[in-house]
Amino acid sequence: MFAVLHVTAFALHAVLRTEPGARGQPAALFSGHGKKSLVFATTPAARALGVELGMTAPQAVARCPQLLIRSAHTGAETEARAALIAVAFTLSPTIEDTAPGVCTADWRGAARATFLPSARAAVTQLSQLGLPTTAGIARTPLLALYAARATRDVLLVESDQDFLAPLPLATADPSPELARVLAQWGLRTLGDLTTLPRDEIVLRFGAAGLALWQRACGGASRPLIPLAPPQAFAAAMDFEQEIETLEPLLFILRRCVDRLALELVAAHFVAAELALTLRFTDDAPHTRRIRLPEPTADTEILFRTLQTYLDSLQTAAPITAVAFEIMPARPLVRQQGLFDTGLRDPHGFAETLARVGALVGSDRIGTPRLAPTHRPDAATLHPPATAIPAALPLPLHPPLGPPLRRFRPPLPVQISHDAAGVTYLWSDRVQGEIAARSAPYPRSGEWWQRDRAWQRVEFDIALAEGGLFRLLQIGDAWFLEGEYD
């Protein structure tokens, strides 16, 4: 058995699927951009309003003033063809790119009970990708194509003769000469033709008659020309009209992500890194590579990653083209230790970090680590770990003394002196007479680097009204660094 996925008016729907809000609208594909261009394909909504094949643009617009006029777009057709192939690979590992908008899958050896559910799932998936599709299932590839063209959903041909007999003769695509002669004979359907002896048809029309008679019988079971699964996972699109807002760009990227995710799953890969390239009207490309916190093939996660980045991107010129690539990797297979703790949702955590980075700057996001220096509060930011490390063991000799609750930043204070030293301080939050103080504790470091040298003097003080604090002198300035519990 063979299954055929067929997209009616493929070139037209390939263009419409890249436009938000175009689905269900009356639209027609024209042979060019001039007034003399002719209608090549229409949507059901356009046909219902009287737009017919072969009409000129003025004639079509006169019938349907709200008609969407479109012309063929090579890039859109390439992307739509890739989407059709990606869905076809979910039906069978052996598929054929039969024609534009037509894919054939080899189902020989598959369980008959899975035919209709699998075909309906593929049709639904392609509809979600913006390609209205029908499916036919039959004994031969040609018969399955006839079935796909004759239905609005999915059709399984149980009896070849009963299905073929009422079909019009044009279904078998006769030459104009043969069609004229057969019409003069009164033959209107495939059943009318196949009731005639094959040898008599061959005697009168030769090889062309034999080929037509065989096509009218549904053709022969033939081996497919297998299509290899994609090795690179990329999509690209040039825009006929410049894009100045985020919504149409995200709409197109969503189509690309949906298709590439299908290809990843079919090839048993996951996405490890994303590469997005935008080209602007000034021909200046912008490329961004995004490393995923954990490899995945989830469509929603991949799209949210792109959306989070684009939400914070500001461009100086409209976008004329986009290219998107996924760097694949094998799925991670690992077993964590019994007491290891990892992030519950690493992608959600990374998305939150990206949104915060867009607000405060990416250089201010990370996990602080102490720097190898004695400078107080010296720390550097590092990317957050994907797994939470185990807690360090308690020190053998715990630190003595009350803990210091630091003020960040330190509080500037004013002080008064007498012969004995500092006697009174005041600030916006703390003020009072100093009842006792420790001896000064000078600290310094990195004196060998002029731009990093530091020096400070620390005092521990007690206020008369209560409270233990650390007083800090840096140059001529005084600060309260913290309060002891």
Query: Describe the biggest sheet?
Result: 8 strands, antiparallel
**In angstroms, what is the radius of gyration?**
37 Å
Shape: elongated
Q: What is the helix fraction of residues, given as a range?
A: 25-40%
- Beta-strand content: 25-35%
Count all strands and give the number: 24
Low-confidence stretches: none
The number of helical segments is: 13
- Average of pLDDT: 86
Compute the separation of the termini in Å. 81 Å
Report the structural category. Answer: alpha+beta
Task: Summarize the structure in words.
- By secondary structure, the protein is an alpha+beta fold.
- 30% of the residues lie in helices and 31% in strands.
- The chain has 13 helices and 24 strands.
- The chain has helices at residues 10-16, 44-48, 57-63, 74-88, 115-128, 141-150, 160-164, 176-184, 190-194, 198-216, 246-266, 299-311, 346-360, and strands at 2-7, 27-30, 39-42, 68-71, 95-99, 102-106, 133-138, 154-156, 233-243, 270-280, 285-296, 319-329, 341-342, 367-370, 379-382, 387-388, 404-412, 414-418, 421-426, 431-437, 441-445, 454-463, 468-474, 477-484.
- The strands form 6 sheets. Strands 17, 18, 19, 20, 21, 22, 23 and 24 form an 8-stranded antiparallel beta sheet that branches. A 5-stranded mixed beta sheet has the order 5-6-1-7-8.
Task: Provide a brief overview of the structure.
By secondary structure, this protein is of the alpha+beta class.
